[in-house]
Amino acid sequence: MNPKVVLDQFHPLVASWFEEQVGQPTDLQQEAWPRIASGEHLLITAPTGSGKTLAAFLWALNQLITGGWPTGVTSVLYISPLRALNYDIQRNLLSPLDELRQTFEKAGEHFPAIHVLTRSGDTPPSDRRQMLRHPPEILISTPESLNLLLSSMGGRSILNNISTVILDEIHSVYGTKRGVYLMTAVDRLVGLCNEFQRIALSATIQPMEKVAEFVAGFRMVGDPDNPQYTPRPVSLIRSGAKKQYDLSVYFPLGTLHQEERDSVWNPLVVELKRIVTRNRSTLIFVNSRRLCEMLTLMINQGEEEPMAYAHHGSLSLEIRSEVERKLKAGDLRAIVATNSLELGIDIGALDEVVLVQSPFSISSSIQRVGRSGHKVNEVSRGALFSTHSIDVLEAAVLAHAIMTHDIESSKTVSCPLDVLAQVIVSMVGVDTWDIDRLYGTLRAS
Known about the structure:
By secondary structure, the protein is an alpha/beta fold. The protein has 17 helices and 15 strands.
């Protein structure tokens, strides 16, 4: 479709802002926006840096700006599996909203108040109470916090006007109990606000058809005492863009004839320091918090100023945010991280990503390497460092799989009865249920 025709669907000032600040729509955005505007449910998959998040959000912003959706209530619900990603999304929405506001004000047109708030385990109690009194137009949350909102009358009161639900990084919860917990909560929303649009996003997911069924759930129709179930149609959008990679596999030479278990780390740290020194910004991924702290310490030993900071889920929000800010501002050369930085958090342009030991999946490896060259048409540079001979073989196979985007298939969890028990307790805690009606409602997931 002609990019100009695609942008004509938006308010002229929204379209002009996009052209001035972003440029031309990607192939993904050109295909997605007409379908989003028509209300279709979507599963969108594309390489990192293809504009998936903006594809999902821009039509919602347009609707809020033009009055297509009401303000003063929560119309957009965004769910991601990481609290750190949620705060990043909030920051990345506030900036374009401010630019759009200035664009409208210069043109002498009204721009409504649009608030973007996060609700997670990091949210202070005072902010949670304020949120109940004045719901944000865009609410950003996690699977667990969404379930907590559904488990209280106050939380449910801000979820009864949802127009669209955006499920980001769906691959990271599909095939896990968190995914089941998330989708039962999404399906429970239907009882509060009727049907709404579902948009799921992922850079790496297989098989798409099964994931689409997972996102869709079922419409419950007919007699409530004898309901019929119809699967929601979910359209699949695959970006035609091909991600380019520049990958290397390393095995530190100093470890070849050494048998001591810890002897690998000294020569490896020498190589890591060499990479960090030659780059402006480097992200080093490891598979455990213990290794994250150890490598950070070893990289910084003997240096006048720290070359790297650690980043993992056990650190406070304030520390994680400061580490991200320093790297993005150019005040820090490297971060050593677990999967806490795997899912698209904006830490600025990265020169190179290093994977110390092979990640546990191909999709995770693609996510990590894709953090460098994160913009459209940029090349992602990555180095895979092995720490033992078997890992060398795994890294070689992994590098080929990354280059060819040969992602492994995932499966949903079968009969997670512990999750079911949690959901039932939540549902009966806020409503009185006929047991057959409760059973019928649960079957919609």
